[in-house]
Automatic annotation (TrEMBL):
GO MF term (any one): flavin adenine dinucleotide binding
Transmembrane segments: none
Gene3D superfamilies: Acyl-CoA dehydrogenase/oxidase, N-terminal domain (1.10.540.10), Butyryl-CoA Dehydrogenase, subunit A, domain 2 (2.40.110.10), Butyryl-CoA Dehydrogenase, subunit A, domain 3 (1.20.140.10)
Protein's UniProt keywords contain Transport: no
Protein name as catalogued: Acyl-CoA dehydrogenase
Top enzyme category: oxidoreductase
């Protein structure tokens, strides 16, 4: 066993940390307040090739894998971006680049991967629906075959980045859930040209006002007869569940990397404050009541990092990684939330002031316990598949 990062991944970490180091907390705070995509950072990631690490070299990418993407995301979050980093690596590098590289046709790869690598094309992902929620099996967005096209109707919710996207990676039902045998049959994943559908009036979206992660909008998406050419299918019609798992597992792994990085950032800020704040003449960090909870969080983050890297390593090798991805996401989200909560307690009343970044990090950390999958569902999966307990749903 070798616990050293591969040379390429270590270089990625240093390169992304150098980008992140140019932007202070005031910058990230302004992006959040203004509800603005961190365009300056994004352009640096694109120009440096830090966003296209998992795209094969023949298409202009770095020729690396999910592990390197996870390391890059963790570094950006830890370097200052916090929760804002996750969507910067999920939307286009993972949902677009990673998915098309593994499941796209030769023509799709030739057309889209160079444009993703150059920053010309951006993507987003849509699976969640108002009625289905976390039960992906029961989505009802329908894609009906009509000649050389599919015609799509339905609704999606909490779709982040659609306002920027050129293509939407859309999960549909081509066989209704009630008729599918097995239940995982009948999924078809489509690449929807967002701007074309908006211009045709068949795709509309409405941003949802939300508590945090305001550097990217999350929207309700309405699909009313969206026409998608049949050559825009990712994988095979009716067999999209295999593609879906190769989206959901990397999403959980990258969410875990974001949690580790965000937790590391807020822990560092808390320790800096605890080392300087001395209302009674001695830094508050000298008190065990302050120091020990912070030390425990450090241990939790290190454990979450190990599982995150293991899950990414497995995915890169085409090996099963569902349980590892779930455990990584569960432990990283919890560690990030504990770090934010403890940082809030360490800062005391000043954490409530928007002059400090703790309030923003506190808001952003909480949602990670619910997305991209609720921790209760992760625990149910572990109970059933790892412990052999009866299925609960």
């Amino acid at each position: 066993m070798d616990f050293d990062l591969p040379e390429g991944a270590a270089a990625v970490r240093e390169g992304v940390l150098a980008v992140a180091g140019k932007y202070d907390q005031d910058y990230w705070g302004r992006c959040d307040t203004d509800k603005r995509w961190p365009e300056e950072v994004w352009r640096e990631l694109v120009d440096g090739g830090w966003h296209s690490l998992a795209i094969p070299e023949e298409y202009g990418g770095g020729g690396q894998g999910l592990l390197e993407l996870a390391v890059a995301l963790e570094a950006l979050a830890e370097g200052g971006a916090g929760g804002a980093a996750s969507f910067m690596y999920l939307l286009t590098p993972a949902f677009g680049g990673l998915t098309i590289a593994r499941h796209g046709t030769a023509e799709q790869r030739r057309e889209l991967l160079p444009k993703i690598a150059s920053g010309e094309v951006e993507t987003c992902f849509a699976i969640t629906e108002p009625d289905a929620g976390s039960n992906a099996i029961n989505i009802s967005t329908q894609a009906r075959r009509d000649g050389d096209s599919f015609v799509v109707s339905g609704q999606k919710i909490w779709i982040s980045g659609v306002e920027r996207a050129d293509f939407l990676v859309l999960v549909t039902r081509t066989i209704p859930a009630a008729e599918a045998r097995p239940r995982t049959a009948g999924f078809t994943v489509l690449l929807v040209d967002v701007k074309e559908a908006v211009a045709a009036g068949t795709l509309t979206y409405r941003p949802i006002p939300k508590l945090g992660t305001n550097t990217v909008a999350s929207s309700m998406v309405f699909l009313d007869g969206v026409r998608v050419p049949a050559d825009r299918v990712l994988g095979e019609p009716d067999q999209g569940f295999a593609v879906l798992w190769d989206i959901l597992n990397p999403e959980r792994i990258l969410a875990a990397a974001g949690g580790v990085g965000s937790g590391g950032l807020v822990l560092r800020l808390a320790c800096e404050y605890a080392g300087e704040r001395a209302p009674f003449g001695t830094p508050i960090g000298a008190n065990q009541a302050v120091a020990f909870p912070l030390a425990r969080i450090k241990a939790q983050l290190e454990l979450a990092r190990l599982m995150t890297y293991k899950a990414a390593w497995l995915w890169d090798r085409g090996r099963p990684c569902g349980s590892e991805a779930n455990i990584a996401k569960l432990t990283a989200a919890d560690a990030a939330w504990q770090a934010a909560d403890r940082a809030f307690q360490t800062y005391g009343g000043m954490a409530y002031s928007l002059e400090y970044p703790i309030a923003r990090m506190f808001r952003d950390a909480r949602i990670a316990k619910n997305i991209p999958v609720a921790e209760e569902l992760v625990l149910a999966h572990i109970a059933q598949h790892e412990l052999g307990l009866p299925k609960s749903y």
